[in-house]
Write a structure and sequence with these properties.
about 325 residues; mainly alpha; P1 Nuclease; binds zinc ion
């Protein structure tokens, strides 16, 4: 099953798939400390839906400037994928590389640093709408930074004859097995240096690239084609509407097994980091009081639900995600 978003008459593929991005943002709300959690919980459906909006900007309004924010082709910055010489900020990146290069090679880590700064400012000024919008966006980019193929030049396996591996890893796998994952990450932490932390995040994610590609290569070579890909009645590989081959349920299961918990680990990493970045921005803004940004009645009305959802989260679950919102509706296409 592949989930796509239909908005404004067009269909859109989403990084991490909607399942991943929405669960990351939603779970991050529960990991927040008690001074922040009730405010974020009041808007948890917005935060959940906002998780996919940065991808919508790419496609639905064809915002070209949005594309490079979602990835970094690390090998274009360093042939060995070494992050130690990587710029720490967008300003530094702009001073060292031409815009055309940055637009091609991707700017994901500096986008994360930038959005964190904007979120800090929004907290300081206690601008409710901006806080929610930027926090949602930040969760999306941090999610992308935990997807190995978002940090690699060979981002869809095309260079190694493995086209479709991107959607397999971030879409088919979590959509098939994510419900069994444990998303509890404990309470959040303060980050001393956002730029360094972001660079380390990219580094750790990038170290998984080789394994992801190798597992797929070996597994696909061990099975006949009809067990790897969904075939139509004429024996041709079924593609989704973006031209990516669709893998069989059995292949998705075996691939997931061989990944040995990698998807769950990356998802949990993204949740822990998202809450930590939100928390750090709030601390750096001087820990502004968020309790009067909403009517007291709203927070009071949500108190009981928050308590029961928190219990659920401690068991690793984040409750129901509403599949429809202002941005379109989810449909099954496979
Ligand atoms: Zn993205």
């Amino acid at each position: 099953m592949i989930l796509v978003l239909v908005a404004g008459g067009m269909t859109i593929a989403l990084a991490w798939g909607p399942w991943g991005h929405q669960h990351i943002n939603r779970a991050a709300v529960f990991a927040l400390p008690s001074e922040m959690r009730p405010f974020f919980y009041n808007h948890i459906d917005f935060i959940t839906e906002e998780a996919v909006v940065p991808d919508l900007r790419k496609y639905s309004i064809n915002d070209r400037a949005e594309f490079p924010r979602h990835y970094i082709d690390l090998e274009l910055y360093d042939p060995n994928g070494d992050v130690s010489g990587l710029p720490l900020t967008m300003k530094e990146a702009r001073s060292r590389y031409a815009d055309t290069f940055l637009n091609k090679a991707g700017t994901l880590p500096w986008t994360i640093v930038d959005v964190t700064e904007k979120l800090t400012k929004a907290f300081r000024e206690r601008k409710k709408t901006e806080i929610l919008f930027l926090a949602g966006d930040l969760g999306h980019y941090i999610g992308d930074a935990h997807m190995p193929l978002h940090t690699a030049l060979n981002h869809d396996g095309v260079m190694t004859g493995q086209k479709g591996i991107h959607a397999l890893w971030e879409g088919q796998v979590p959509e098939s097995f994510g419900e069994a994952y444990n998303l509890y990450t404990g309470e959040t932490k303060y980050i001393k240096d956002i730029a360094q932390e972001t660079r380390a995040m990219i580094d750790s994610t990038h170290h998984l690239v080789e394994r992801v590609l190798a597992i797929d290569k070996e597994l696909a070579a061990s099975m006949p084609k009809e067990k790897v890909y969904l075939l139509d009645s004429t024996g041709r590989v079924v593609n989704n509407q973006y031209g990516d081959p669709v893998h069989t349920a059995e292949y998705v299961r075996l691939f997931h097994e061989r990944l040995g918990g990698m998807t769950e680990q990356q998802l949990r990493g993204a949740i822990a980091e998202t809450s930590a970045y939100w928390y750090t921005a709030w601390v750096n803004a001087g820990k502004p009081d968020l309790s009067d940004l909403d009517p007291v009645e709203l927070t009071e009305r949500n108190r009981k639900n928050l308590e029961s959802d928190l219990k659920l989260w401690k068991k690793g679950k984040v409750g129901m995600i509403r599949a429809t919102g202002d941005f379109g509706k989810w449909v099954k296409v496979q």
